[in-house]
Design brief:
alpha+beta; 41% helix; Alpha-Beta Plaits; three-stranded antiparallel β-sheet
Length: 316
């Protein structure tokens, strides 16, 4: 009915199994704790008189129909000005006007259409923006610069099959390559050595140990050949290994940053709880729960504290 009234029935045509049905009876008072100004300020990312920005985790999101519906919330609730889905993280970024709607109404709308946000006590922690690893970028840049120049200076050696007739030219190129390789070895590749050393100190052979060993052997052999004049060495290959390994590690870190594996006990606790006082149900933030409070636990809800069952039956 709600989708039909807002011309969103295309939702059913986008996927074979569009959306999810909300489980059980919808109870709007469940989200009354979101009217608390302190709770709201800890959840939102930005707040002004005309705009509030907030990001929710939507575990139920699973198909193109979900994206279509969630990104058209403004057609259901005019107070929502923008909703943008991050399908990979199963998150939705919402901008709404606080003069037209409230945080509680936005969450109730999501829950009503079957996409109840996962709001836990962990969400009230101060969110830290992932630090930009500038030093890692510098190391990749230095390794890339040195590698490209070493490769360019190595072309005469490759094209002449190791025979350069110009007097002193081969030695000059070799020593320039020698100098360019030093920042790669002592700056760009430093993390591999540090990680390998820490592992060895703990009597543990980590994945960086063989990488560090390969780098040391390659560079040591190359330096020996250049100093003794017995060859050109393999500093182009060694620098390339460091450069591409650093790029691979950067992509690996970016991938890990897109997922959240750090979940402590706060991640499983609800943000609000319903208490029964003098026969009246009241929703409060779970942080305000006190000893001897009588709480109401509905089906599939988390018990937020040590408690004694005083009414009804329960399977936990």
């Amino acid at each position: 009915m709600l989708l039909n009234e807002n011309n969103l029935c295309n939702y059913y045509n986008l996927d074979k199994n569009p959306g999810l049905k909300a489980k059980g009876k919808f109870i709007s008072d469940r989200f009354a704790y979101l009217d608390d100004e302190t709770t709201k300020q800890k959840l939102v990312q930005f707040s002004s008189d005309e705009q509030v920005n907030i990001t929710f985790s939507i575990p139920q999101m699973h198909c193109s129909s979900c994206i279509y519906l969630l990104e058209n919330l403004h057609r259901i609730e005019p107070g929502v000005k923008q909703s943008q889905v991050n399908f990979q993280k199963k998150e939705i970024f919402i901008i709404y006007n606080p003069t037209e709607t409230t945080l509680r109404k936005v969450v109730e709308l999501l829950a009503f259409i079957g996409y109840e946000p996962h709001i836990s006590l962990k969400d009230m922690d101060v969110k830290k923006t992932p630090a930009f690893n500038r030093k890692q970028i510098y190391k990749i840049g230095v390794a890339g610069f040195c590698f490209s120049n070493i490769m360019m200076l190595s072309f005469p050696e490759y094209l002449s099959s190791g025979i350069i007739n110009e007097a002193g030219l081969k030695e000059t190129f070799s020593w320039i390559i020698f100098g360019l390789s030093l920042p790669v070895l002592f700056f760009s590749a430093a993390d591999f050595f540090v990680s390998a050393w820490k592992g060895l100190r703990q009597k543990f052979l980590n994945i960086d140990a063989p990488i560090a060993l390969a780098i040391i052997v390659t560079f040591a052999r190359s330096y020996y050949e250049i100093i003794t004049g017995s060859g050109a060495g393999y500093l182009d290959s060694g620098s390339g290994i460091v450069f591409f390994m650093l790029i691979g590690r950067w992509f690996q870190n970016k991938t890990y940053d897109s997922f959240s594996f750090e979940r402590d006990y706060l991640s499983y606790f609800p943000l609000g709880v319903t208490i029964l006082k003098n026969g009246v149900e009241t929703n409060i933030p779970v942080t305000q729960l006190q000893k001897l409070n009588r709480i109401i636990i509905r089906n599939e809800e988390m018990i937020p504290a040590d408690a004694i069952l005083v009414k009804g039956t329960a399977n936990i």
